[in-house]
Amino acid sequence: LSNHSRCIIIPGNVSIDENGDRYSDYSLLDLDPQQDKFVEVAYYSGASNELKQVTEFHWVGGKPPKDSPICGWDHSKCPEGYPFYVYLLSGSTIFILILMSGFIYFWRRYRLEAELAAMSWKIRWEDLDGDELKKDKKKSRRVRRLHGFSFESEALLRSYSRTSNGSENV
Fold first, then answer.
1. Rounded to 5 degrees, what are φ and ψ at 144?
2. GO:BP terms for this protein (predicted)?
């Protein structure tokens, strides 16, 4: 049975070497994107020890992958770290950004305080004193008692403006 080729129940030719071992034949299948099915692209014959390409391979991206990764299989080809100037440039950029943001924050705060100080003519609500308002109401009651009620005197009493006591800014 050695060194013979016979057709047995297994479809195709079966080849056996001088030791009685069968030669293995392999087909390489590839998914054809147009047909959406696997097709034979290469065939290896164990008896003749040759690889025959039947059709073209369908590679992702149109080309075969690289033989080895960019950094090598054990990462020996990758650089250990960045050069010193990269760290220096990054640190100085971050430092300048922090300084600029701090400067902008304090500058805007200073401008706000300056604007508020320039508004010394405005009176805070807490500085208003309502004692004079109470005195005006008492006077208007006396005037009404003396002169009687009239629309002219009521309109005249309403035309007075409010005043306040004691403000350091006034």
1. -65, -35
2. receptor guanylyl cyclase signaling pathway
pTM of the model: 0.35
- Positive or negative, the CA dihedral 60, 62, 64, 70 is negative
User: What are the residues facing 38 on neighbouring strands?
Assistant: 31
> pLDDT in tens for each of the 170 residues of the chain?
555 555 556 666 777 888 888 888 889 999 998 889 999 999 998 888 899 999 998 888 888 888 888 888 888 888 777 888 999 999 999 999 999 999 999 999 999 999 888 877 777 777 776 665 556 656 665 555 555 555 455 555 555 555 555 555 54
- Supply 147's token pair: 């002169």
Integer angstrom CA distances of residue 127 from 116, 117, 133, 167: 16, 16, 14, 6
